Amino acid sequence: MSNLIRNNAIVENEWTTVTLPAGEETIRKQAGKVVMFKLTGEQTCTPEQIAATVIPENGKVIVPLAVWQARKDELAPRLVKGELGLWLATHEPLQTLVDAVDDLNQLPIIAVHVERFADGRIFSIGNLLRTRHGYNNELRAFGDVLRDQLFFLKRCGYDSYQIRADRSAADALAGLQDFSQPYQGAVDESMPVWRRLPRGAQ
Q: Residue 177's domain spans which residues?
């Protein structure tokens, strides 16, 4: 069964997410504790990994931002055909993605990978893509994506969610209905509840 939720339904995934070959993981410590999250702007892949990334010759693919930057000439025809999307990790600066294409809305899909569910940068990235940068196409969250996050990811502009493989997409789908009337305005509904509903109707 598919673990992809889009537009409030479980659907088959028509996009292949291309990943980088595994590289060396260095354990970093600060004040004696392991640093769990990569720093924004930190370089985490090598030219060798980028060159060795295998991209299917046919079908729709979502490639890492670093691969697009390095192999743009090779991949540009697939972007023109609507067969190419990009993904970035939460530690990659959003401006790098914005600068990587002439118009973000050329991309039929942008995906954001969250390595650990506690990394809140995924919410800021979604909000900024929708508001500051005017991205209108599919915005997907994938990686360590859990049920409890879906409602808030939707509020920040995401409309598709690739649920972690060991979790139930059907259970996660119910998470989009956890709250009937969000109080604050956000990307999915700009007006706060006190402007949307008459007093006493909440």
A: 4-18+43-196
Given the DSSP bridges, would you call strands 60-64 and 84-89 parallel, antiparallel or unpaired? parallel
pLDDT in tens, 22-69: 766 655 655 555 556 677 777 778 889 999 999 999 999 999 999 999
pTM: 0.84
DSSP 133-168: S---SEEEEEES--HHHHHHHHHTT--EEE--TTS-
Cβ-based neighbours of 45, under 8 Å, separated by 6 or more: 20, 23, 64, 66
**Residue 130, domain CATH:** 3.20.20
Which of helix, strand or coil describes residue 179? coil
Distance of CA 151 to the CA centre of its chain: 15
Assigned domain for 187 exists: yes
